[in-house]
Write a structure and sequence with these properties.
- By secondary structure, this protein is mainly alpha-helical.
- It has one domain.
- Helix content is 73%, strand content 4%.
- Strand 1 and strand 2 form a beta hairpin.
- The chain is rod-shaped.
- The chain starts with 8 loop residues before the first strand and ends with a helix.
Length: 151
């Protein structure tokens, strides 16, 4: 496990290579990106073993080579990862919105719906009563004689 300092992180090489913490964090993510790149190009993965005076140069050369050769795959990997993180955030927000709707708004809508059903039933009853009255009035009123029939 590397020891983190304010400006430098010591990587597990012999002799130790010091890189800034943000670079080390990026390098920690590289195995997944390199594996994805290797999967896409069928390139074999080899263990990294750096030692001696040129360890830092060898390490940086290898990382630069990996980044240059597999840049698109690495960028795609990080883009997919970023999209997954964004979709998780959106999923969480959507889940919160649905929960809020079900807990807060749905009961109000159900109550309003019940009130509208009662009002609708009342209006139907009044309409039926009005139809009955109109029907009775038609039955009680004298038949209308057509003026043409009189002639």
């Amino acid at each position: 496990m590397p020891q983190e300092h304010p400006l430098l992180v010591t990587c597990g090489t012999n002799p130790p290579i010091e890189v800034p913490p943000h670079v080390y964090r990026l390098l920690q993510q590289l195995p997944d990106a390199v594996a994805a790149a290797a999967d896409s190009s069928n390139a074999p993965l080899v263990p990294l073993n750096f030692s001696g005076r040129n360890a830092q140069d060898e390490f940086l050369t290898l990382i630069t080579d990996i980044i240059c050769r597999h840049r698109q795959s690495i960028e795609d990997f990080f883009a997919v990862r970023e999209n997954l993180e964004k979709s998780e955030v959106l999923r969480s927000k959507l889940k919160g919105s649905i929960s809020d709707f079900l807990e807060n708004k749905m009961p109000k809508l159900e109550k309003e719906n019940e009130e509208l059903r009662k009002e609708n039933a009342t209006l139907h009853s009044e309409l039926d009563a009005a139809r009955k009255v109109t029907n009775i009035q038609h039955q009680l009123s004298p038949p209308v004689v057509n003026q043409e029939e009189k002639k």
